[in-house]
Q: What sequence folds into this?
């Protein structure tokens, strides 16, 4: 039976697409473990290649490296395999709920953007030369359509000017 093939850090970096700096950081944080050759080179086995891919996937899911550290600590400190898997299951359920909520927010944003772009396409046909503030009350192109929220916010009337009075000595004593 042959010995599992090991990779030096440069080979692992090429294979996984991670930088040498990232791999060293993973090792420093305890996320990755390397054996050492007699010459002192870091050597990584197939399990560590899988670990790098796993870390990358967790980062894609939004986990920070300290969170991944905590996840590994939780799993490794479990008294049994089923306990460790239960911890993972709970964490992933929570992350799935967060991801679904984020997807819903993005889908709503997509709908808002599409609605706004459709509305703004109509503005190309506008023949009135007017100020931006007049667009909110446009009746030439959008007579039967209210401006979508992403467009309506642009049409704010300028704020009333604020009059400042010169400060007196008495004002300084009263201010907090």
A:
């Amino acid at each position: 039976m042959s010995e599992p093939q090991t990779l030096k850090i440069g080979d692992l970096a090429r294979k996984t697409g991670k930088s040498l700096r990232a791999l060293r950081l993973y090792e420093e944080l305890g996320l990755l473990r390397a054996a050492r050759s007699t010459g002192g080179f870091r050597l990584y086995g197939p399990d560590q290649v899988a670990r790098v891919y796993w870390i990358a996937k967790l980062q894609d899911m939004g986990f920070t490296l300290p969170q991944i550290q905590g996840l590994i600590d939780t799993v490794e400190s479990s008294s049994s395999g089923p306990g460790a898997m239960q911890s993972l299951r709970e964490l992933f359920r929570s992350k799935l709920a967060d991801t679904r909520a984020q997807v819903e927010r993005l889908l709503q944003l997509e709908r808002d953007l599409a609605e706004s772009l459709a509305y703004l396409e109509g503005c190309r046909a506008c023949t009135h030369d007017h100020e931006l503030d007049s667009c909110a009350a446009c009746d030439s192109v959008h007579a039967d359509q209210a401006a979508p929220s992403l467009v309506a916010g642009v049409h704010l009337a300028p704020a009333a000017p604020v009059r400042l009075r010169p400060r007196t000595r008495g004002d300084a004593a009263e201010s907090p």
Residues 81-123 form the longest helix (43 residues).
